[in-house]
Write a structure and sequence with these properties.
40% helix, 14% strand, eight-stranded mixed sheet
């Protein structure tokens, strides 16, 4: 196994891989088509939660890391790790980023090199999509001439306990030599490596992890809706049920799901079932329906809360606390805040938002971003807590906000109503 690593895609997954590989002593070339990321790294700035400016500076100071947007700079790698996005387009997997990365890697692929796909995708992608592109461009054969495999990313943005290094890494290759080479590489980066019997199993393991969470969050979201209609405190139900030491795992309701893992990844699994087997995953379909509609449900709860205050939504000033999809993160991908804000704007509300973590947000052109002050809170007819970041002055919120709808069960007070 050589020491030259190319990381294709420097986002939430790729940048931590590149930094950790550099720390482990590899010579790393990070490639991304977004020049803004390359410029940020060149100036010592980060753009994701899990990597600090100090980590970027330390990585650069080793002299073993360079970031580039020039595909030609990828040449000479011993190991290439593909960590590009896999979004949905019209309800189907968009593999165009994987295909583009495969072409870039294929141009530089040499005999004896190793290629690893980390992008979350449907079972069969590594061998049915990635391998043919690499083989066609390079003229080499996977398994015979180069190693190829899959290792699903398990990045949890903002999680300071289960970091990249501490989280077990699943690996699989298209043959035994590929598996052993990929296992040896990741053993240099993480504390524990888990070997799967094949790439399809490894690809599906990632989707199982995310579908498990997606379905269970949908279950508790649906129960929260019905419990509220019955006058039952769902948070008390969860608290008391959690006292059972076996056979129960608590999940908590919220305004919807976000990021890449839950709104998108389970659909990759259902899409593959439908394409290959002619059947859909009923659990995924139901979970999508429930979780996708939670922002609309929260909007209805906003209407009901304002109605109790004898105020219409139209013309009311609503302050959204938190735009990220999860607490203590700047990640606003697929955040449920977007659906909620759009619904409130459609109803005629005047919407403002506060989130010190999220720098740029897709609705910044139509909403006002405000500092969290006594004045901004008192001005609002209703404050909706969407993301419970730890750096918010919640004492100030409780003291100054006239009314609060808390979708995270973070606050308690006479002016607070929970989801």
């Amino acid at each position: 196994m050589g020491k030259n690593v190319a990381v294709i895609g420097l986002g939430y997954v790729g940048l931590p891989v590149a930094v950790r590989a550099t720390e482990a002593g590899f010579d790393v070339t990070g490639f991304d088509v977004d020049d803004r990321k390359i410029e940020a790294l060149a100036s010592g700035r980060t753009y994701i939660d899990d990597i600090t400016d100090e980590m970027v500076a330390a990585t650069s100071a080793t002299g073993r890391f360079r970031a580039t947007s020039a595909a030609a700079d990828v040449a000479g790698f011993d190991i290439a790790v593909i960590t590009v996005p896999t979004p949905l387009r019209d309800g189907a997997p968009d593999t165009s980023f994987i295909e583009g990365a495969a072409r870039t890697v294929g141009e530089a692929l040499r005999p004896g090199a190793t290629v690893v796909l980390e992008s979350t995708t449907y079972p069969g992608t590594t061998e049915e999509l990635l391998a043919p592109i690499l083989e066609d461009i390079s003229g080499l054969r996977a398994g015979d001439d180069f190693h190829l495999g899959f290792s699903p990313e398990r990045i949890d943005p903002g999680n300071t306990t289960w970091t990249f290094e501490r989280t077990p890494k699943i690996v699989a290759g298209v043959d035994d030599p590929s598996t052993k080479t990929i296992e040896a590489f990741y053993a240099e980066l993480v504390d524990e490596v888990v070997v799967a019997s094949g790439t399809r199993e490894a690809e599906m393991a990632k989707l199982l992890e995310n579908t498990f969470r997606h379905v269970n969050i949908a279950l508790v979201n649906e129960l929260a809706i019905h419990a509220d209609s019955l006058g039952i405190d769902i948070w008390e139900v969860i608290r008391t049920a959690s006292s059972k030491p076996f056979g129960f795992m608590p999940f908590r309701p919220g305004p919807g799901v976000g990021g890449h893992c839950l709104p998108i990844d389970p659909t990759y699994l259902s899409w593959q079932f439908e394409r290959r087997l002619g059947t859909v995953s009923r659990f995924v379909k139901i979970a999508n329906d429930i979780n996708d509609n939670m922002p609309a449900y929260v909007a209805r709860r906003v209407q009901a809360r304002l109605n109790d205050l004898r105020k219409p939504v139209n013309g009311s000033r609503i302050l959204i606390l938190g735009l990220a999809y999860k607490a203590n993160s700047n990640d606003a991908r697929e955040t449920p805040a977007t659906g909620l804000i759009r619904a409130l704007l459609d109803l005629g509300a005047e919407v403002s938002a506060h989130d010190a973590w999220v720098d740029a947000y897709e609705l910044d052109s139509v909403i006002e971003r405000v500092d969290l002050t006594e004045e901004s809170l008192e001005r609002a007819d209703l404050v909706v807590l969407v993301t419970d970041h730890q750096d918010v002055d919640y004492d100030l919120v409780l003291r100054a906000a006239p009314a609060i709808l808390d979708t995270r069960n973070h606050l308690a007070g006479e002016n607070v109503e929970t989801l």
